[in-house]
Amino acid sequence: MKMKIGSLLLSMAVVIGHAGGALAGELSVDDVQARIDTATPEEPADFSGRDLSRLDLSGLDLSGANLAGADLTNARLEDTRLSGANLSGANLNGTWLIGADFSNADLSGAQLFGPVVAQGLEASREQSPLFAGADFSGARVIARLSMGDAHGADFSNARLGADMKNQSMGLMRFEAENADLSNANFAGADLSHALLRFANLRHADFTNADIRDAEFDGADLSGARFAGARAEGARFAGATLTGATGIDTADGMVVAQ
Question: How many CB atoms lie under 10 A from the CB of residue 120?
């Protein structure tokens, strides 16, 4: 029951931030569009460090834009194109990301706590944001990315683990069930208590990662690398580990034969 409540809170609590006529950030949507219109490949639109919180930027083309350090809390980015954008250090807590394209975007050091990724409680491939090839290195991510596409993404040294000291209302954690995370880099990342059941994790790199109590049941981990990982309590029931390496050096990793 607590896990269900946690998922519900993760996907719904942030909706409150859009209610009650909350004020938007320092720029208007027209301001943002004007900067997009005058941008060039050599001089992309620059919103670095700006307050864009609660703005409805749905459907805009922010591909390649500089949003480093921007505040996008509770903003709407539904179907927004952000491929190749610089979002390093940006705050996307509670942001609506349904259908957004973050392919090859730089999200290093960014914060994504409880982004809205579906219209209802159930994730779908059609509504899930695209994070293929994105850079999440060093980011803090507590989000539902189930059914999504983040193949080739870099999660090295990212903080994806649940904060077990702050779970009174249910388990809020990184969830990526049935997601495509093939060739993703999780080296040195904290994935403790992460939910990765039935995910495509072929050739993923978990070198020196913390995967304690993570759930990999039914996942495809063919060719994955686990050297030096901390794996006490991790579950691998029905997982495919053909060609996986480093299992013998992973601390506490138990794989049923």
Answer: 9
**120 and 159 belong to one structural domain:** no
**CA–CA separation, 49 and 66 (whole Å):** 9
* Mean pLDDT of the residues in the chain: 90
Which residue segment(s) compose the domain that 247 sits in? 155-256
Q: Say if residue 88 is in the same domain as residue 172.
A: no
User: How many separate domains does the chain show?
Assistant: 2
CATH number of the structural domain spanning residue 237: 2.160.20.80
For 10-62, write each residue's pLDDT tens digit.
Answer: 544 444 444 333 456 689 999 999 999 999 999 999 999 999 999 999 999 99
Residue 175 above 60 pLDDT?
yes
CA distance 49 to 51: 7
CB 253 within 8 A of CB 247: yes
